[in-house]
Amino acid sequence: MISIRNLSFQYNSKATIAFPDFTIPRGQHCLLLGESGSGKTTLLHLLGGLLRGYEGSVQVDNTELSTLSEKALDKFRGQHVGFIFQKNHLINAFTVEKNILLSPFLAGLNPDLERFNTILSSLGLAEKKQSPVSALSHGQAQRVAIARAVINHPSIIFADEPTSALDDSNCNRVIDLLLQVAKAQDTTLVVATHDQRLKDKIKNQIVLSSPLKR
């Protein structure tokens, strides 16, 4: 479950970004919509604990993020949250296997190799296990990023503009894949996007307004 109340955030002296109150139940899929500068990425980073120093309340899996120390927040994020960023942030010199298994390592979890192999097969990456990321196509690298995001059984997946640079065919493939993975694990999926094509895929939507001066 995700819940925010009276949430706002300010970058230095810039305008304060004020967010609407909302609750997203466990297992629900939701779009964050809004024009550039409305705070979609900022909100994802607040919900994932990547940004601190906010005003208001941010609860994720019934945990108020502001009450966690940096160490506790790192552990919480590693065990409960999967992130798919605009840029994949994969390590090109590492193989597909090492990139994905880095996620449980950093979260202090033992790697589940059976689950790892199952995910690779479901994403069509089994034959790429030992390939360096630098040798993959853009679409294959995207699927590696998805695998890395779901390997730790996260209760929540945050995806930031996962389809903005894709044609219609690959857009459908990527969002269908995310929905399939999320549904199979009863995972809450939150997608920040300005891609209007996704409105037909995910009906629950939160629309953000432009930043407000306070």
TrEMBL record:
Keywords: ATP-binding, Nucleotide-binding. It comes from the Bacteria. PROSITE patterns: ABC_TRANSPORTER_1, ABC_TRANSPORTER_2. One of its GO terms (cellular component) is plasma membrane. InterPro entries: AAA+_ATPase, ABC_transporter-like_ATP-bd, ABC_transporter-like_CS, ABC_transpr_LolD-like, P-loop_NTPase. Residues 2-211 form the ABC transporter domain. The keyword ATP-binding applies. GO terms for molecular function: ATP binding; ATP hydrolysis activity; transmembrane transporter activity. The keyword Cytoplasm does not apply. This is ABC transporter ATP-binding protein. The lineage of its organism: Bacteria, Pseudomonadati, Bacteroidota, Cytophagia, Cytophagales.
